[in-house]
Write a structure and sequence with these properties.
Helix content: 10-25%
Number of strands: 10
Strand content: 25-35%
Number of helices: 3
Largest sheet: 8 strands, antiparallel
Structural class: alpha+beta
Radius of gyration: 25 Å
């Protein structure tokens, strides 16, 4: 009879329930951490020195010196990259060479994509339908990675400006 009285005590549920709940929450945190795709959300190769991350800015400086700029347009037909002046118009960037665009999801590395853009009549094109329900971080490079343009495609919009990450003088 004393067992029946103890099992009706609500404090007993706390003694059993709280440790079980903490185990479930811990397993959930481990699953989220494993699915994150790594410890960095940046797509650049970085070095760590005394807890400070550093990255190579040479490609950004070259893009600024070449005055490169482009507009990316995405819709159901695919992705189009339209050059805007600078090295695109004076021949610094070969118009017959493919370019690589890296599309990074701001928080889920599993959704990241790297797409090769092929030369076309007005610029470069890829037959890839890009989901536009969330933001994309954009990074455009040639195959030799000598320069780099960056931008952000905002959710629900079809176009984004790409430019050097280092501001002009």
């Amino acid at each position: 009879m004393s067992l029946a009285v103890k099992s009706r005590n609500p404090v007993m549920w706390l003694v059993i329930g709280l440790p079980l709940l903490s185990i479930v929450a811990g397993v959930g945190l481990v699953v989220v951490a494993v699915r994150s795709g790594g410890d960095d959300v940046v797509i650049d190769t970085v070095q760590r020195t005394a807890q400070i991350q550093t990255t190579e800015l040479g490609p950004d400086a070259r893009a600024r010196a070449m005055k490169l700029s482009a507009v990316l347009h995405a819709d159901a037909k695919g992705i189009d990259l339209l050059p805007v002046g600078g090295g695109f118009s004076n021949g610094d960037v070969p118009r017959d060479a493919p370019l690589t665009i890296t599309l990074s999801h701001p928080s889920d590395a599993w959704l990241d994509q790297t797409i090769e853009l092929r030369p076309g009549e007005l610029g470069w094109h890829a037959d890839v339908a890009l989901p536009l329900e969330h933001d994309w971080l954009l990074q455009l490079t040639p195959t030799d990675t000598q320069w780099r343009l960056r931008g952000r495609l905002v959710a629900g919009q079809n176009a984004a400006h790409l430019g050097p990450a280092i501001a002009g003088e």
